[in-house]
């Protein structure tokens, strides 16, 4: 039997992290072992660095391993007319300046957060521009900042 290589192993890691909520390296090592991959924690840590896997919190403060830009499957629900596929890594901080809001996210997640905001057509938000860990939100004139914060909480809140 051919020993699976690095590419196959990293693809398996990506599949597992994309489909499961993994809280520990031991849990991931067991799932990899079940798929025929035998590796050490040191090898897994090297794969994490190369793949830019990070352990990041969800809105409830639970930490999970994720790839940048990966959204774990969540049940869809309706909240005041908005679809809210809970984006598991969420927003770290928000600051307002005039007609702008700056959202801080974990590294690599700003694009996904901006896409969720744009997809949900939040009243008062004209557009978003995403960097690596920052989203610039352009607000409409006379938009209510409290309403924007409430809409973002509804969009990114855990069920």
TrEMBL record:
UniProt domain Arginine repressor DNA-binding: residue ranges: 6-68
One BP annotation, GO: protein complex oligomerization
Transmembrane segments: none
GO terms for cellular component: cytoplasm
Span of domain Arginine repressor C-terminal: 87-149
Coiled coil start-end: none
Pfam families membership: Arg_repressor, Arg_repressor_C
Record localization: Cytoplasm
Alphabetical UniProt keywords: Cytoplasm, DNA-binding, Transcription, Transcription regulation
Family: Belongs to the ArgR family.
Protein name as annotated: Arginine repressor
Gene source species: bioreactor metagenome
